[in-house]
Amino acid sequence: MKLMFVSEEDRAEDWRDELGKYFPEMTFLVWPDDNKVDLDGIDYCLAWKPQRGVLARLSGLKYVQSLGAGVDGLLVDPELPTHIPISRMVDRSLVRGMTEYILYNVIHYHRKMGDYTAQQAAGNWKVVRQVDPRARRIGIMGLGELGRDAAEKMLSLEFDIASWSRSPKNMTGVTSYYGDDGFTIFLTRTDILICLLPLTNATRGIINAENIAKLPEGAVIINCARGGHVVDDDLLAALDSNHIAGACLDVFNEEPLPASHPYWTHPKVRMTPHTASLTNAQSAAAYVAENIRRVERGEHPLNIVDLEAGY
Ligand code: NDP
Ligand code: OXD
User: Which of 19, 45, 200, 291 could disulfide-link to 310, CB 3.0 to 4.6 Å?
Assistant: First the structure.
């Protein structure tokens, strides 16, 4: 059994060690270091933003395992093999990491912690009015693996939660809006907007001037999905006009974010370097091993990407 690892951002050694516990007989190759070997014999590929055309060279490939939940970095490859299944990453630790990130930032805005930071710097002792979480309207775009867990944990803190997705959802305590028809009403009732959508043709640029204008004055935006969801100039204009009170951005149209980008120094922007949640081999190897076993048995891997929908 031969597996090729293709990612510049993940630690190949961790995956080699962890998958070796399930498959001691596996030959684990790393692209591009091992690309001189016989690529025809590669059965499986673990990939994150692979160089375009690389996967097409693996003629014996049986399935591709994405190292991330988002597969936009794979689907941009015009030569991507489409006759074999591609599985998204779904992992407990990835889900928990995202929920931590969202809770931390939601509470930051909900409790106005930024005001206290500014007040401390100015030596100003002043109590800011607290809002009951039941009166704080959170809106989650994308109620999938990540959105559901974040919603569940925020419900336990009694926030008023709504979701927007492609299909209707039936999650107790969460008001479900869906499709184009539900989008405007979802936006107009949202104080804290969280983006957890996949980046697809239908969602690219969705956080634009028209949609931002539908959020109530003083709303904040947390984008932990993909930079391509945001039209940066529109968001900057909305921050500068005070329509949007703050933005927490983990992902950017260009990564790393260029040093000259206005986000770096914008007083209303909180930034992290695409690290809201990271796949780690120690936790996720069990999922990958299960998928490999399924394919070895002639079954489909779990969570196959719908190439037409793009996620
Ligand atoms: P899922 O596929 O489980 O969920 C995606 C959700 O988005 C679903 O609810 C889906 O609706 C909804 N959706 C998709 N297209 C549309 C659309 N056109 N209109 C409305 N809703 C839509 O994905 P995950 O929850 O696992 O991950 C979400 C994204 O988070 C990833 O694609 C990735 O980009 C990002 N991510 C970012 C990380 C980071 O560190 N910053 C880490 C991990 C992921 P429906 O349920 O009806 O299909
Ligand atoms: C992912 C990511 O999609 O890390 O998993 O962004």
Answer: 200
